[in-house]
Amino acid sequence: MPSLADIAAALGVSAPGGEAISITGMATLAEAGPTELSFVGSDAYVSELATTRAPAILVQKRVKVPTTWTRPALVVDDADLAIATVLKLFAPPVPRPPAGIDPAARVAGSAALGEQAAIGPFVFVGERVRIGARTILHSGVYVGDDTVVGDDCELFPHVVLRERVSVGSRVVIHAGSVIGSDGFGYRWDGRRHAKIPHVGTVVIEDDVEIGSCVCIDRAKFSATRVGRGTKIDNLAQIGHNVTIGPHCIIVGQAGLAGSARLGAGVVLGGQTAVRDHITLGDGAMAAACSAVAEDVPAKAIVSGTPALPHRQSLREQAALRRLPDLVTQVRKLQEEIEALKKK
Amino acid sequence: MPSLADIAAALGVSAPGGEAISITGMATLAEAGPTELSFVGSDAYVSELATTRAPAILVQKRVKVPTTWTRPALVVDDADLAIATVLKLFAPPVPRPPAGIDPAARVAGSAALGEQAAIGPFVFVGERVRIGARTILHSGVYVGDDTVVGDDCELFPHVVLRERVSVGSRVVIHAGSVIGSDGFGYRWDGRRHAKIPHVGTVVIEDDVEIGSCVCIDRAKFSATRVGRGTKIDNLAQIGHNVTIGPHCIIVGQAGLAGSARLGAGVVLGGQTAVRDHITLGDGAMAAACSAVAEDVPAKAIVSGTPALPHRQSLREQAALRRLPDLVTQVRKLQEEIEALKKK
Amino acid sequence: MPSLADIAAALGVSAPGGEAISITGMATLAEAGPTELSFVGSDAYVSELATTRAPAILVQKRVKVPTTWTRPALVVDDADLAIATVLKLFAPPVPRPPAGIDPAARVAGSAALGEQAAIGPFVFVGERVRIGARTILHSGVYVGDDTVVGDDCELFPHVVLRERVSVGSRVVIHAGSVIGSDGFGYRWDGRRHAKIPHVGTVVIEDDVEIGSCVCIDRAKFSATRVGRGTKIDNLAQIGHNVTIGPHCIIVGQAGLAGSARLGAGVVLGGQTAVRDHITLGDGAMAAACSAVAEDVPAKAIVSGTPALPHRQSLREQAALRRLPDLVTQVRKLQEEIEALKKK
């Protein structure tokens, strides 16, 4: 159990008193118990200081703490980052299968496992697969023939990596995600939808994290690619031949149609849709629920269905709020003009 | 095979003749065979009585059955509820693994199983897990360390409950759902998206039912919570630290971003999105495909993207239908005014 | 490795020189290496011919190839169809479990397997199941009691077919999909949401392909039905009692609510929503992200939220782009009329 001094040290700040207090966890001001550290990220929460049971708080530098607060307050530049740092001290270890191959796993003789790799029960590892050092495959993971997974990866239960997929190092994939299914491509041949073979693959670069029940399809040819450091939330759909740059953020239930391209650091809000063959430039952002049907320049922010530059979208929404009245106004104007014309 | 008399008894109504007819199932008027009970829930379907082969029908009280219908008609207050009651008589038992631990399951020695608990093949049960009496884990279910599942639950194939999750009694979770993955939280540290540890958990209260491929993320701290009696449809996304009250209905593919709060009895239509930190009050409803970006008061109905009070949304939609004409009208008005000004 | 002559033969066209060139794969003009065939599907790509390293190309008949291109060009009627044909020559075989039952599978004694059926490890096959000839169940597939799967099917890892489901021949279901969970149906009984039993089933007809993490619910009674030759993309939601005609295309993350009906050859774009009990006629199309809340006649195209005839939708969108200016114009008109009235 860390003391407040330990926490201050982890944050690189000074603890103004109370160094010996034992902290058992973090909680909001309203929910904190007498051994839980809390935090004030903005002025909106200051009033809750009067009633919180927290023995100490983290405070964002800009926030003014009232003089009535006499317990220790650790002032930090970035409350969210500080919370992340403190939470690491409390994070219980994720339970993992031990290093080695579980007797109830099925690992092909031609597969190569790195040192300390941990293969759980009911895992399938196909021919010529390479699994890096210290990589963990939880119960029920499937890794198809010729797939390569780097070092220090963690694949949670039931993740499916189909054959010939390439996964970098330090990649985390949460339970139930499927990487490398065929892309959705057919061509009507006069009698039926003829399947277009998808002979390509999927490349997941280093430091990517992928949520639960995410689908990333293999390419028609070449590769569907997720750039290093990109983070993908649950239930997202990444179509065949999509290219995602480094450090993108793709929020839950977003969908990218075939051959869409995201530059570096692109952010897609939840439930966003991106049309096939569309490009979003570096640092572009699409607000939640937007439908991106045209290319978006670097650093631009778009929103709406169809997605427009965010400012235009806001103007149209504001005008739309006035539209019912506008219909009435125009009708009145017509009457007045009729009256004027009769004069 | 129940007789019409058995069905009438189950419904607590009188069967006006035909008590001995054997009924083999239920079907719509158009599809019913000569041994299938059908139903008329509204006047819209009365015309189909002329041609149906059903030997008897359930009829909503308000519906006027024509005098030409001479077969038995069971009059009920609520046709939908009556159908549910009758269907129970025909429901074939769901096949389940037998009580005990399948030899192909992997159950930690420190796990505690209630009486008559049934653990299917390829199931993983971690350290210190507690499984209640009569709870059924179908093939391939994963239950992480320290997770607790109550009595009389049923987890369908491949459900994943990560570590330290708490599930009440009489909870049903359909195949492929994932409870307790890390929430989607990162903080840009200048070089990369630094992961915010999610040390919290998920609490699923009693009598909850969760569809297939649903994702419910664990909290940053404290718990993501689903209130008792709430029902969640397939492919829904429940973000970290979301709080869902009792008896809510969340329809397929809806998504709730982090720290959203639903009161009691809230209804979210299919594909609805709820922004992070937004609250919907008790009994509030969001229509299908709406994007809720502001708090919704109790009992209010909202719709649209962004979601507005439903009446306002309807007015705007009606006005929008007239907008192309309005543009033309305004152009004409401008011309007429120009003409008037010249006079 | 096929030669250009082999490829020309597969396409039924003549190779104008270069017949002996060995081709190792396909790639875009920009990405092709010196042994990869490329293609020009439209005039937009002609400029890339100047710099491509491809030793030969496929060319859509209408495209004008510049005289500066001196390497072989195979002229085809339909570039996409030709690409599909060529890719088949390069498609590496999908790795599959060998025919027979894996010793780590659990197959009920009363199940009947067709000749050369292949049952992988960790597969569960219930009582009285029938699996057709040459059908492949990959690792971790679950097939519930009394379910029937036809010949030449392929079920990828962790697919769940619940009990009493019927699957035709030549059906492909990708990893993680769940067929036959209970439909989402409850009826408030005054105290709680009472579950409506779903005693029906799901019927998947011949030649259907279903993506990853798709959910298709079982019917309240009778069957949820997917017509022959229909293709369903990842993460789609098909509610109870939905009827989908033959040769439909349902793109990723689309959702069909209960009892929706699609005729033959209907196309639903990505993230489309279809309200319960709505019918789309033969050949109807709903654009991506549309919300279909009213019946759509055969061959009609709809778009938008709510979905309108596509032309109307485009007109409204165009008018909406002008709405902010319209508000200003109307204000000016009001002032001008006031001025005129004062005269």
Short overview:
Three copies of one chain form a homotrimer. Chain A has 343 residues and is of the alpha/beta class.
Describe the model.
The structure is a homotrimer of 343-residue chains. Chain A is of the alpha/beta class and 343 residues long. Chain A folds into two domains: 4-90, Udp-n-acetylmuramoylalanyl-d-glutamate--2,6- Diaminopimelate Ligase, Chain: A, domain 1 (3-Layer(aba) Sandwich), CATH 3.40.1390; 100-312, Hexapeptide repeat proteins (UDP N-Acetylglucosamine Acyltransferase, domain 1, 3 Solenoid), CATH 2.160.10. Chain A is built from three helices and 37 strands. Chain A has helices spanning 4-11, 79-90, 310-342; strands spanning 25-26, 36-40, 57-60, 73-76, 100-101, 106-107, 112-113, 118-119, 124-125, 130-131, 136-137, 142-143, 148-149, 154-155, 160-161, 166-167, 172-173, 178-181, 186-188, 193-195, 201-204, 209-210, 215-217, 223-226, 231-232, 237-238, 243-244, 249-250, 255-256, 261-262, 267-268, 273-274, 279-280, 285-286, 291-292, 301-303, 308-309. In chain A, strand 19 and strand 20 (193-195) form a beta hairpin. The first copy, chain A, starts with a helix and ends with a helix.
